[in-house]
Amino acid sequence: MSRAALLVLADGRFPAGGHAHSGGAEEAVKAGRITDAATLEEFCRGRLHTAGLVAAGLAAAAALGIDPLVLDDAADARTPSAALRTAGRKLGRQLLRAARATWPSPELSALAAARPRGAHQPVVLGLTARAAGLGPEDAAYCAVYESVGGPSTATVRLLSLDPFQATAVLARLAPAMDETVTAAVTAARRALDDGVDALPRASAPLLEIGAEAHAAWPVRLFAS
Amino acid sequence: MHLDHATTFPERHTHSAEPLRADGTRRALRIGLGGPVGSGKTATVAALCRALRDTVSLAVVTNDIYTREDADFLLRESVLPPERITAVETGACPHTAIRDDISANLEAVEDLEDAIGPLQLILVESGGDNLTATFSKGLVDAQIFVIDVAGGDDIPRKGGPGVTTADLLVVNKTDLAPHVGSDLQRMARDAKEQRHELPVVFQSLRSERGVTDVADWVRARLAAWNAA
Question: Do B91 and A223 touch (CB under 8 A)?
């Protein structure tokens, strides 16, 4: 694997649309569940063990070469909120565009042809990692980091939270991120033999409900 | 005034940025409108739609900062049928969505053409931002920067990427100049200094001439695009 390619893909500046999404942080801020660095950390820890783990499992499985269309259905089944399914596909479509321009590959083109309205973002992420010569761990790390990095930068904008504190939150979560990646990749390898039911399916009901409420707001800073 | 950039429409290699569609026909010309908050971008877009809609098949993408207000204004004013107006959400960063990460805007542009068939012109309006906000060449083929006389007559002198490099600089609300103490001749002199041969239009949408000069410029770009 190329460590440098991993940095390119994991960079928050990778132009795949993530900047317009808060990962549920905007709703949680308004509901009073995120008010400072400590509550941001708890919010991110919750995401890590639910949405982050599920995304990492799907990304690792796609990087291992499991059929992306089967994984796309598996992602649908793991996302109860219609608003989140829409956001996930939108982000997947944006990532696919960026990925095809940066690491052109027949697999990425085939997925774009099969899912012109977008496949779920973690599936595209795994396939992108594959196209970049990266492995399942790399794909899982990108998914896990994104699942907490997005809410963290969004909270800096939403609460004017000290950016140093927000970054320190991410650093404190690093050991938990490592564990999540290990669990996700182990499950993805199992899915090679046992099918996609072996992939993580942790759910965060409050994130799902909050996403539905957020999608109906007339005034908001973030798309989700 | 119609001296333009030396290279009119350079080749690009971003998906959906290529000048030809998959079937070999030329895709819609995309023109971006940027500029500070309140300078009259949405009013200019509305006036352009009215001026061009009878002869040009066009659509609009708005980039609101935290609401759908610009899109809603255009809908309310009925400048175009509703299916020809779409809004992109920008996550508190309007300049990111038009320059650093253009993926959502490219999608909006593609979706418009998917939904209503081939278009000749798509206007992409940025959310109100600052003097450094410019459009990526991967998103638009030409850009208009809109400032107004009430924002201070020193803006052309201060320059910045928008004022200096936009394909067309529009100085809007000239009717307000006497009321806010703005010196239009000084603005014209400063703009010339910053932009050299690039065109500048002074406009008041309340005057009889309205958006005519900008509409003429857009028509000229459209003719160049179709001839390229």
Answer: yes
pTM: 0.88
Half-sphere exposure of B61 (CA within 13 A, CB side): 31
Candidates B149, B109, B113, B114; CA nearest to B125 is B109
**A15 → chain B, closest CA residue:** B101
In this predicted complex, what is the ipTM?
0.84
Answer yes or no: is A38 within a domain: yes
Per-residue pLDDT at B148 exceeds 80: yes
Choosing among B70, B90, B101, B106, which should be mutated to test the A contact, i.e. which has the most A CBs within 10 A?
B101
Structural domains of chain B sorted by starting position, each given as residue range(s) with its CATH number in brackets: 29-227 (3.40.50.300)
CA distance A128 to A8: 11
Cα gap B17→B68, rounded to integer Å = 26
> Tens digit of pLDDT for each residue in B57-109?
999 999 987 777 788 888 888 899 999 999 998 887 888 999 999 999 999 99
Q: Give the gap in angstroms from C-alpha B60 to the nearest C-alpha of chain A.
A: 19
